[in-house]
Write a structure and sequence with these properties.
It is an enzyme of class 6 (ligase). With about 325 residues, the chain is mainly alpha-helical. Helices cover about 55% and strands about 5% of the residues. It has helices at about 15-30, 40-45, 50-65, 85-95, 100-105, 105-115, 120-135, 150-165, 210-220, 235-250, 255-260, 265-290, 295-325; strands at about 5-10, 35-40, 75-80, 140-145, 175. Bound molecules: adenosine-5'-tetraphosphate. Adenosine-5'-tetraphosphate binds near residues 8, 182 and 194.
Length: about 325
């Protein structure tokens, strides 16, 4: 089987964007691949975290992966920080990455603008750590939202550069970007992507929001002064809601336009809210069960950390040898 790798940062409760852009597709691709999913806690440190909240978010993220349908007995779901190879490979790869390349990363520019008081070196070298995550497991496929496309490209460039010098050390990974849901936008500012760290509660749907909040947030979603449910660049708010509705119900834009022909935005928003709440209900129930029962997750974390460590060490030793670091006796 080919290898699939992906992960998310533990920077807050996941949003519907994280779910439709990434997590839902992970579940769909699950059978076809040998899958590894990381709780990317080292990446999360690029933004200042409150330690106790951070630990809770990491655990909650792990439980959400499982609640969404990823079986930790079949998939390697582990904590990035528990496998030292990520940081070690990241250092070596940073010596094969040019400043000019990193300077072109749009996510760095966005995040630097957002966190102007803490533009740290980790934020800058974030794509190198991400390359290490992926290359460490010889991954073939990396399902991500469209915002991560550039990071996948730099990962491929670094791997190809390394392979050109040392032979076929790394598998060159492909990005998997879903056709629908790759970029879910904020409900309050539909020109901006929906983001975990958005402070405006009405802008994001969190996977753990209750049914009433979900419906209320959709009711308050910013749209336009028109009243026709139609997909188009001139209608970013409605188009975003259509995108969400389409992902959740499997209906095409055309079918949605027909369904709401002659009806107002109120009916449409309510339908989207209800469809999303229905989609998330089973996940939320499973999540509560998992969080209440401590030992199951603990044992899965332990077993999978060890598994990830085993794969990672294999690649890391090979890389160390290739670059000429002295082997351990
Ligand atoms: N709005 C989105 N639409 C579709 N996909 C999205 N992703 C993120 N936002 C959207 C995808 O979710 C995965 C996890 O992302 P991450 O945790 O690595 O961080 P991120 O991309 O920076 O996501 P956030 O939610 O915006 O987090 P913060 O606020 O902490 O920066 C990725 O596959 C991403 O593409």
């Amino acid at each position: 089987k080919k290898i699939l790798y992906s992960g998310m940062q533990a920077t807050g409760t996941l949003t519907l964007g994280n779910y439709l852009g990434a997590l839902k597709n992970w579940v769909d691709l699950n059978e076809e691949y040998e899958c590894l999913y990381g709780v990317m806690d080292l990446h999360s440190l690029t933004v200042r975290q409150v330690p106790a909240d951070f630990r809770k978010n990491a655990r909650s993220l792990y439980a959400l992966y499982v609640a969404a349908g990823l079986d930790p007995e079949k998939n390697c779901i582990y904590y990035q920080s528990h496998v030292s190879g990520h940081a070690e490979l990241s250092w070596i790869l940073s010596c094969f990455t040019y400043m000019g390349e990193l300077n072109r990363m749009t996510q760095f520019k966005d995040k630097a603008a957002k966190h102007a008081d803490n533009i740290n070196a980790g934020l800058y070298t974030y794509p190198v750590l991400m390359a290490a995550d992926i290359l460490l497991y010889q991954s073939d496929l990396v399902p991500v939202g469209v915002d991560q496309k550039q990071h996948l490209e730099i990962t491929r460039d670094i791997a190809q550069r390394f392979n050109a010098i040392y032979g076929d050390v790394f598998t060159i990974p492909e990005a998997y970007i879903p056709k629908a849901g790759a970029k879910i936008m904020s409900l309050q500012e539909p020109e901006k992507k929906m983001s975990k760290s958005d402070e405006n509660a009405n802008a994001t749907i969190r996977l753990l929001d209750d049914r009433d909040s979900i419906i209320r947030k959709f009711k308050r979603a910013v749209t336009d002064s028109d009243s026709v449910v139609r997909y188009g660049e001139d209608k970013p708010g409605i188009s975003n809601l259509m995108d969400i509705y389409s992902c959740v119900t499997g209906r095409s834009y055309k079918e949605i336009e027909k369904e709401f022909d002659g009806k107002g935005y109120g009916d449409f928003k309510l339908a989207v809210g209800e469809a999303v709440a229905d989609e998330l209900a089973p996940l939320q129930k499973r999540y509560e069960e998992l969080m209440a029962e401590k030992t199951y997750l603990d044992s899965m974390i332990k077993a999978n950390d060890e598994k990830a460590q085993y794969y990672a060490t294999k690649t890391l030793r090979k890389v160390q040898k290739k670059v000429g670091l002295t082997e351990r006796i």
